[in-house]
UniProtKB/TrEMBL annotation, chain A:
Stretches assigned to the ABC transporter domain: 5-243
PROSITE patterns: ABC_TRANSPORTER_2
Protein name: Daunorubicin resistance protein DrrA family ABC transporter ATP-binding protein
Keyword annotations: ATP-binding, Nucleotide-binding, Transport
Membership in a protein family: Belongs to the ABC transporter superfamily.
KW Lipid metabolism (keyword) present: no
Annotated transmembrane regions: none
GO molecular function, one term: ATP binding
Entry annotated with the keyword NADP: no
TrEMBL record, chain B:
Source organism: Thalassobacillus devorans
Lineage: Bacteria, Bacillati, Bacillota, Bacilli, Bacillales
Ranges that cross the membrane: 22-44, 64-82, 103-128, 140-166, 178-200, 224-245
InterPro entries xrefs: Nod_factor_ABC_transporter
Name of the protein this chain belongs to: ABC-2 type transport system permease protein
Domain of life: Bacteria
Keywords: Membrane, Transmembrane, Transmembrane helix
Keyword Transmembrane applies: yes
Amino acid sequence: MDSIIKVDGIRKIYKMRKTKEIFVAVDDVSFEVEKGEILGLLGPNGAGKTTTIKTICGLLVPDEGAVTINGFDSVKKRNKALRHISAVLEGNRNLYWRMTVEENLEYFAGNRGMSRKAMKPHIDKLLEQFRLKEKRQELVNKLSRGMQQKLAIAVAMLADTDVILLDEPTLGLDVETGYEVREILRSIAKKEGKTIIISTHDMPVVQDLCERTVIINNGRVIADESVDHLLQLFKTSAYQISLKEPITDEQQEMLKFEFPLHSWKGLDLQVSLEEEQEIYALMDILKRNHTPIETINRTEINFEKVFMQLVKEEAAS
Amino acid sequence: MTTLWNVIRVNTKKEYVEMKRYFANTLSLLLTFYIIFLAMFFGIQVIGDPAEAGANTQFIIVNYIFWYFAMMTLQSIGWTVSDEAMRGTLEQLYMSPMGAWRILLSRLSGMIFIHFLIVILLLFLSMLTTGEWLNLNPAATIPILLLTIASMIGVGFMIAGLSIIFKQISAFLQILQFIIMGLTFVPLSVAPYLIAAPFVKGVDMTRQIMIHNYTLADFSISDYSWLIANAVVYGIIGVSVYLACERYAMKKGLLGHY
């Protein structure tokens, strides 16, 4: 498969105006996105996601490194690169609220140079696809949040670019609309072969929609793996041990030393093992005071847990 | 060229639609300007020399019309940039492969076209109010006006560049109103050094046509040279300053911030 986006060692530094303090927003971030792939770009707040997204969109010039979209450098060949990418960066704020649904679509299509004749069938198709046909003459400020979000995505789709970048596409949506948006995105990727990059905090969206994920923390890529692989990896190493009695302080100290990323929920100890054999070391700690064990289970893992674990591990290292 | 025309078309339509949707705001803007004109007109009647009342009134009508027009042209891209940044739509404009400056230029062209129609309305309203009729002579006025607008657009782009970096420039725009007033009201015969200032030469030549019935043949080569140089220099400097500010904002991550 060919890469349509190449992010190659980008680094961006901000200098605080007053304190002259230097803040490294992203540092040596590299990854590639293949044609037709749905990629999840994740990270806690302030991790460097927005900087990465804006650099991909050519809205930010990196201090080092480069981004190419379909072979065009996002800074040096900006206008050519922009022919291959569209984005929803601020959700429903990307729209003109005192204009109707149709006027918004016409405006953004025209801004990409499309003629009235050329845009008409395209707009009709999108209104149908996003179930906004009945609302075409409605002012955007009269639409529900979900409809506004769908319209923002439709606006990004208008350009008919190879890549669509969505920043928090399901933020603030109710469960039903969130699901609808997810289905639309899935169909766009499958039927139209679009490459989609989703930046989100909504882990079920990632688990459900994305094939691969790039996780950024403290400005660095800490994971670049397929979602299935990450889930499998954590599924085999995560355990929940239910105890009948609490452990002693001495045992607690030993746990902290051997398994720094463990956590407690009442008498349930949750721990991730790097190697299967580590279970014996854990048993040794519990055996020291003959702590009675109720059950030992492999933890049901979801992507949220994987994400939290990866971020915690990175912070601990 | 066709694609640029499409950009101009949708931006003009957007300006018209928003003026229509914010009708109360548009109407109050027009009323304010008309009231300012009435204040100027009656002020002249009270304190001016009665023997020259007619000439003074004509002078005021032309200057006042240009003041309105220059203010709308110069301030509008600045307002547009800070308003779009506040709404969250500015970055979307920068995502167009047409280049944001072309979109802003198209938006400005749309605004100029709409405000030109408003100016004509205000002009007739002022002439009707005062009973002083000016020589409009479109064949002579329009070419000069187009070159004058080019230098106004240049200055407008400089202001847009500043708006991209600083966003909050409303205080500056308010001061600018008075600077524009000075540039449109003070004739070159009183302050000849203002010939190098943006759009002053154009306003002066239009005044000659409308008040003193000049035709294009009555102007010298020097007049035209100053007019064209003014349009070209301010036009080029304006777009260059804007593009430099845009590059700076992209480097510092200021696009879209408010």
